[in-house]
Protein backbone atom coordinates (compact mmCIF):
# COMPACT_ATOMS: atom_id res chain seq x y z
CA UNK A 1 0.00 0.00 0.00
CA UNK A 2 2.91 2.38 0.71
CA UNK A 3 4.16 2.01 -2.88
CA UNK A 4 0.67 2.83 -4.14
CA UNK A 5 0.48 6.02 -2.05
CA UNK A 6 3.92 7.11 -3.26
CA UNK A 7 2.87 6.81 -6.90
CA UNK A 8 -0.79 7.83 -6.97
CA UNK A 9 -2.79 9.99 -4.59
CA UNK A 10 -6.19 8.33 -4.32
CA UNK A 11 -7.90 11.46 -2.95
CA UNK A 12 -6.13 14.25 -4.86
CA UNK A 13 -8.33 17.38 -5.10
CA UNK A 14 -6.67 18.53 -8.34
CA UNK A 15 -5.85 15.40 -10.37
CA UNK A 16 -8.27 12.58 -11.00
CA UNK A 17 -7.09 8.99 -10.74
CA UNK A 18 -7.57 8.67 -14.52
CA UNK A 19 -5.27 11.64 -15.18
CA UNK A 20 -2.62 10.42 -12.71
CA UNK A 21 -2.60 7.03 -14.45
CA UNK A 22 -2.17 8.74 -17.83
CA UNK A 23 0.76 10.81 -16.56
CA UNK A 24 2.44 7.73 -15.07
CA UNK A 25 1.67 5.55 -18.14
CA UNK A 26 -0.18 3.14 -15.88
CA UNK A 27 -3.28 1.39 -17.16
CA UNK A 28 -6.12 2.02 -14.71
CA UNK A 29 -6.77 -1.70 -14.51
CA UNK A 30 -3.28 -2.08 -13.05
CA UNK A 31 -4.07 0.37 -10.24
CA UNK A 32 -6.56 -1.98 -8.66
CA UNK A 33 -4.91 -5.16 -9.86
CA UNK A 34 -4.20 -7.82 -7.28
CA UNK A 35 -2.37 -10.92 -8.41
CA UNK A 36 -4.71 -13.90 -8.44
CA UNK A 37 -3.47 -17.10 -6.93
CA UNK A 38 -2.68 -19.19 -9.98
CA UNK A 39 -1.56 -22.76 -9.90
CA UNK A 40 2.15 -22.69 -8.99
CA UNK A 41 2.86 -25.31 -11.64
CA UNK A 42 1.29 -23.17 -14.38
CA UNK A 43 3.16 -20.07 -13.21
CA UNK A 44 6.45 -21.97 -13.22
CA UNK A 45 5.80 -23.31 -16.73
CA UNK A 46 4.90 -19.85 -18.04
CA UNK A 47 8.11 -18.42 -16.60
CA UNK A 48 10.14 -21.20 -18.25
CA UNK A 49 8.29 -20.71 -21.54
CA UNK A 50 8.95 -16.96 -21.47
CA UNK A 51 12.69 -17.51 -21.07
CA UNK A 52 12.72 -20.14 -23.80
CA UNK A 53 10.64 -18.12 -26.29
CA UNK A 54 12.89 -15.10 -25.84
CA UNK A 55 15.61 -17.06 -27.63
CA UNK A 56 13.40 -19.31 -29.79
CA UNK A 57 10.49 -17.15 -31.00
CA UNK A 58 9.36 -19.61 -33.69
CA UNK A 59 8.41 -22.34 -31.23
CA UNK A 60 4.80 -23.49 -31.61
CA UNK A 61 2.46 -25.53 -29.44
CA UNK A 62 3.70 -28.98 -30.42
CA UNK A 63 7.40 -28.17 -30.05
CA UNK A 64 6.71 -26.43 -26.72
CA UNK A 65 4.87 -29.52 -25.47
CA UNK A 66 7.90 -31.68 -26.29
CA UNK A 67 10.32 -29.21 -24.73
CA UNK A 68 8.32 -28.98 -21.48
CA UNK A 69 8.04 -32.75 -21.29
CA UNK A 70 11.83 -32.87 -21.47
CA UNK A 71 11.84 -30.46 -18.50
CA UNK A 72 9.68 -32.85 -16.49
CA UNK A 73 6.21 -31.38 -17.11
CA UNK A 74 3.71 -33.95 -18.50
CA UNK A 75 1.61 -31.42 -20.48
CA UNK A 76 -0.56 -31.64 -23.58
CA UNK A 77 -1.32 -29.25 -26.47
CA UNK A 78 -4.61 -28.02 -24.96
CA UNK A 79 -2.91 -26.75 -21.82
CA UNK A 80 -0.08 -25.06 -23.74
CA UNK A 81 -2.52 -23.29 -26.06
CA UNK A 82 -4.32 -21.91 -23.01
CA UNK A 83 -1.07 -20.71 -21.46
CA UNK A 84 -0.01 -19.16 -24.78
CA UNK A 85 -3.26 -17.19 -24.81
CA UNK A 86 -2.65 -15.99 -21.24
CA UNK A 87 0.85 -14.89 -22.23
CA UNK A 88 -0.40 -13.09 -25.32
CA UNK A 89 1.97 -15.18 -27.39
CA UNK A 90 1.54 -16.27 -30.99
CA UNK A 91 4.15 -18.28 -32.88
CA UNK A 92 5.47 -16.55 -36.00
CA UNK A 93 5.92 -19.43 -38.43
CA UNK A 94 4.01 -19.37 -41.73
CA UNK A 95 0.63 -21.12 -41.72
CA UNK A 96 -2.85 -21.00 -43.19
CA UNK A 97 -5.64 -18.78 -41.84
CA UNK A 98 -3.30 -16.26 -40.25
CA UNK A 99 -6.08 -14.02 -38.96
CA UNK A 100 -9.70 -14.22 -38.04
CA UNK A 101 -12.18 -13.37 -40.76
CA UNK A 102 -12.82 -9.64 -40.84
CA UNK A 103 -9.34 -8.59 -39.64
CA UNK A 104 -7.42 -9.37 -42.83
CA UNK A 105 -8.31 -5.93 -44.20
CA UNK A 106 -6.24 -4.31 -41.44
CA UNK A 107 -3.01 -6.20 -42.18
CA UNK A 108 -0.43 -3.91 -43.80
CA UNK A 109 2.80 -4.69 -45.70
CA UNK A 110 6.27 -4.46 -44.20
CA UNK A 111 7.72 -1.09 -45.28
CA UNK A 112 11.20 -1.20 -43.78
CA UNK A 113 13.00 -3.66 -46.06
CA UNK A 114 15.78 -1.75 -47.80
CA UNK A 115 14.79 1.51 -46.09
CA UNK A 116 17.64 3.74 -44.89
CA UNK A 117 16.73 4.88 -41.38
CA UNK A 118 18.81 8.01 -40.85
CA UNK A 119 16.88 10.35 -38.57
CA UNK A 120 14.70 10.43 -35.44
CA UNK A 121 10.91 10.18 -35.85
CA UNK A 122 11.35 8.45 -39.19
CA UNK A 123 10.43 4.97 -37.92
CA UNK A 124 8.98 3.90 -34.60
CA UNK A 125 8.37 0.31 -33.57
CA UNK A 126 6.09 -1.09 -30.91
CA UNK A 127 5.34 -4.45 -29.32
CA UNK A 128 3.81 -6.15 -26.27
CA UNK A 129 5.57 -8.65 -24.02
CA UNK A 130 4.68 -10.90 -21.10
CA UNK A 131 6.28 -9.90 -17.79
CA UNK A 132 6.41 -12.60 -15.08
CA UNK A 133 6.02 -11.69 -11.42
CA UNK A 134 6.47 -13.78 -8.32
CA UNK A 135 2.84 -14.93 -8.19
CA UNK A 136 1.39 -13.74 -11.48
CA UNK A 137 2.18 -11.65 -14.53
CA UNK A 138 1.44 -8.42 -16.37
CA UNK A 139 1.88 -7.11 -19.90
CA UNK A 140 4.28 -4.39 -21.01
CA UNK A 141 4.05 -2.37 -24.20
CA UNK A 142 6.64 0.13 -25.42
CA UNK A 143 7.25 2.49 -28.33
CA UNK A 144 10.83 2.81 -29.57
CA UNK A 145 12.47 5.20 -32.03
CA UNK A 146 14.40 2.88 -34.36
CA UNK A 147 17.10 5.45 -35.19
CA UNK A 148 18.03 6.43 -31.61
CA UNK A 149 16.88 3.17 -29.92
CA UNK A 150 15.22 5.32 -27.25
CA UNK A 151 12.05 4.15 -25.50
CA UNK A 152 9.61 7.01 -26.12
CA UNK A 153 6.65 5.73 -24.10
CA UNK A 154 5.64 2.57 -22.26
CA UNK A 155 2.97 1.18 -19.99
CA UNK A 156 1.93 -1.84 -17.92
CA UNK A 157 -1.47 -3.50 -17.96
CA UNK A 158 -3.16 -6.67 -16.78
CA UNK A 159 -5.11 -7.02 -20.04
CA UNK A 160 -4.39 -6.99 -23.77
CA UNK A 161 -6.51 -4.19 -25.23
CA UNK A 162 -6.05 -2.19 -28.43
CA UNK A 163 -7.16 0.97 -26.59
CA UNK A 164 -4.24 0.57 -24.17
CA UNK A 165 -1.77 0.35 -27.08
CA UNK A 166 -3.30 3.46 -28.67
CA UNK A 167 -3.03 5.30 -25.36
CA UNK A 168 0.71 4.57 -25.08
CA UNK A 169 1.30 5.58 -28.70
CA UNK A 170 -0.63 8.82 -28.14
CA UNK A 171 1.61 9.53 -25.14
CA UNK A 172 4.70 9.16 -27.35
CA UNK A 173 3.19 11.45 -30.00
CA UNK A 174 2.33 14.09 -27.40
CA UNK A 175 5.97 14.18 -26.28
CA UNK A 176 7.85 13.75 -29.55
CA UNK A 177 5.48 14.50 -32.45
CA UNK A 178 4.24 12.13 -35.13
CA UNK A 179 6.59 9.64 -36.80
CA UNK A 180 6.59 8.87 -40.50
CA UNK A 181 6.13 5.09 -40.00
CA UNK A 182 5.08 2.86 -37.11
CA UNK A 183 6.04 -0.82 -37.33
CA UNK A 184 4.41 -3.61 -35.31
CA UNK A 185 3.62 -7.30 -35.56
CA UNK A 186 0.27 -8.68 -36.74
CA UNK A 187 -1.19 -9.11 -33.26
CA UNK A 188 -4.89 -8.53 -32.72
CA UNK A 189 -4.25 -5.14 -31.08
CA UNK A 190 -2.53 -3.86 -34.22
CA UNK A 191 -4.79 -5.52 -36.80
CA UNK A 192 -7.81 -3.71 -35.40
CA UNK A 193 -9.91 -0.85 -36.69
CA UNK A 194 -9.04 1.25 -33.63
CA UNK A 195 -5.27 1.02 -34.20
CA UNK A 196 -5.23 1.46 -37.98
CA UNK A 197 -7.75 4.30 -37.95
CA UNK A 198 -5.83 6.11 -35.21
CA UNK A 199 -2.59 6.03 -37.23
CA UNK A 200 -4.34 6.81 -40.51
CA UNK A 201 -6.06 9.87 -39.04
CA UNK A 202 -2.63 11.29 -38.20
CA UNK A 203 -1.06 10.55 -41.55
CA UNK A 204 1.27 7.87 -40.13
CA UNK A 205 2.23 5.00 -42.42
CA UNK A 206 1.56 1.53 -40.99
CA UNK A 207 4.13 -1.23 -41.35
CA UNK A 208 3.70 -4.78 -40.05
CA UNK A 209 6.13 -7.67 -39.70
CA UNK A 210 5.84 -10.43 -42.26
CA UNK A 211 4.90 -13.86 -40.95
CA UNK A 212 7.97 -16.02 -40.53
CA UNK A 213 10.26 -12.96 -40.32
CA UNK A 214 11.73 -13.12 -36.82
CA UNK A 215 14.09 -10.18 -37.50
CA UNK A 216 11.55 -7.67 -38.85
CA UNK A 217 11.07 -6.02 -35.43
CA UNK A 218 14.42 -6.99 -33.94
CA UNK A 219 15.11 -3.61 -32.33
CA UNK A 220 12.42 -3.88 -29.68
CA UNK A 221 12.97 -7.64 -29.33
CA UNK A 222 16.54 -6.85 -28.28
CA UNK A 223 15.19 -4.40 -25.72
CA UNK A 224 12.88 -7.08 -24.29
CA UNK A 225 15.92 -9.35 -23.87
CA UNK A 226 17.85 -6.59 -22.11
CA UNK A 227 14.94 -5.79 -19.81
CA UNK A 228 14.20 -9.38 -18.86
CA UNK A 229 17.77 -10.62 -18.43
CA UNK A 230 19.06 -7.51 -16.65
CA UNK A 231 16.05 -6.80 -14.44
CA UNK A 232 12.87 -8.93 -14.58
CA UNK A 233 14.40 -12.41 -14.15
CA UNK A 234 16.82 -11.18 -11.46
CA UNK A 235 14.19 -9.26 -9.48
CA UNK A 236 10.82 -11.06 -9.44
CA UNK A 237 8.24 -8.55 -8.21
CA UNK A 238 5.36 -9.09 -5.81
CA UNK A 239 2.95 -6.55 -7.37
CA UNK A 240 2.46 -4.17 -10.28
CA UNK A 241 3.71 -1.12 -8.42
CA UNK A 242 7.06 -2.67 -7.58
CA UNK A 243 7.27 -3.80 -11.21
CA UNK A 244 6.44 -0.30 -12.48
CA UNK A 245 9.23 1.27 -10.44
CA UNK A 246 11.77 -1.33 -11.55
CA UNK A 247 10.87 -1.08 -15.25
CA UNK A 248 10.96 2.70 -15.05
CA UNK A 249 14.47 2.64 -13.56
CA UNK A 250 15.69 0.19 -16.20
CA UNK A 251 14.27 2.25 -19.07
CA UNK A 252 15.84 5.43 -17.70
CA UNK A 253 19.20 3.65 -17.60
CA UNK A 254 18.67 2.15 -21.06
CA UNK A 255 17.78 5.52 -22.61
CA UNK A 256 20.88 7.15 -21.12
CA UNK A 257 23.29 4.58 -22.55
CA UNK A 258 25.72 6.15 -24.99
CA UNK A 259 26.40 2.99 -26.98
CA UNK A 260 23.50 1.08 -28.45
CA UNK A 261 23.72 -1.72 -31.00
CA UNK A 262 24.69 -0.81 -34.53
CA UNK A 263 22.12 1.07 -36.57
CA UNK A 264 22.81 -1.20 -39.52
CA UNK A 265 19.54 -2.85 -40.55
CA UNK A 266 19.41 -6.43 -39.23
CA UNK A 267 17.91 -7.71 -42.46
CA UNK A 268 20.86 -6.32 -44.42
CA UNK A 269 23.31 -7.99 -42.04
CA UNK A 270 21.42 -11.28 -42.31
CA UNK A 271 21.57 -11.06 -46.13
CA UNK A 272 25.36 -10.50 -45.95
CA UNK A 273 25.77 -13.60 -43.77
CA UNK A 274 23.88 -15.62 -46.36
CA UNK A 275 26.17 -14.26 -49.11
CA UNK A 276 29.28 -15.16 -47.09
CA UNK A 277 27.96 -18.66 -46.42
CA UNK A 278 27.25 -19.13 -50.11
Write the layout of secondary structure elements.
Blueprint: H1 2-7, H2 17-23, H3 28-31, H4 40-55, H5 61-70, H6 77-87, E1 123-132, E2 137-145, E3 151-157, H7 162-176, E4 181-184, H8 193-201, E5 205-208, H9 218-232, H10 240-256, H11 266-277
Parallel strand pairs: 1-4, 4-5
Antiparallel strand pairs: 1-2, 2-3
Helix pairs in contact: 5-6, 9-10
Annotation keywords:
278 residues; alpha/beta; Nucleotidyltransferase, domain 5; five-stranded mixed beta sheet; globular; disordered N terminus; disordered C terminus
Condensed summary:
This protein has 278 residues and is α/β, with parallel strands linked by helices. The protein is built from eleven helices and five strands, in the order ααααααβββαβαβααα.
What does this 3D model show about the protein?
By secondary structure, the protein is α/β, with parallel strands linked by helices. The chain has 2 domains: 40-87; 104-271, Nucleotidyltransferase, domain 5 (2-Layer Sandwich). The chain contains 11 helices and 5 strands; from the N terminus they run H-H-H-H-H-H-E-E-E-H-E-H-E-H-H-H. The chain has helices at residues 2-7, 17-23, 28-31, 40-55, 61-70, 77-87, 162-176, 193-201, 218-232, 240-256, 266-277, and strands at 123-132, 137-145, 151-157, 181-184, 205-208. A 5-stranded mixed beta sheet has the order 3-2-1-4-5, with helices on both faces. Helix 5 crosses helix 6 (77-87). The radius of gyration is 19 Å and the shape is globular.
Amino acid sequence: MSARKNMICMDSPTLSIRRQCELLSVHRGGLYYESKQKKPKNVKMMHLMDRHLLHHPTEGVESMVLWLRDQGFPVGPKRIRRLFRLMGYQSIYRRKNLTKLGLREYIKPYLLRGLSIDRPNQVWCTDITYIPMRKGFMYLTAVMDVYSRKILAWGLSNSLEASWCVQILQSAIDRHGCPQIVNSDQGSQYTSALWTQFLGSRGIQISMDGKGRATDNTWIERFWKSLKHDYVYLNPCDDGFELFEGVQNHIEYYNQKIHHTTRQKPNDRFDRLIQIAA
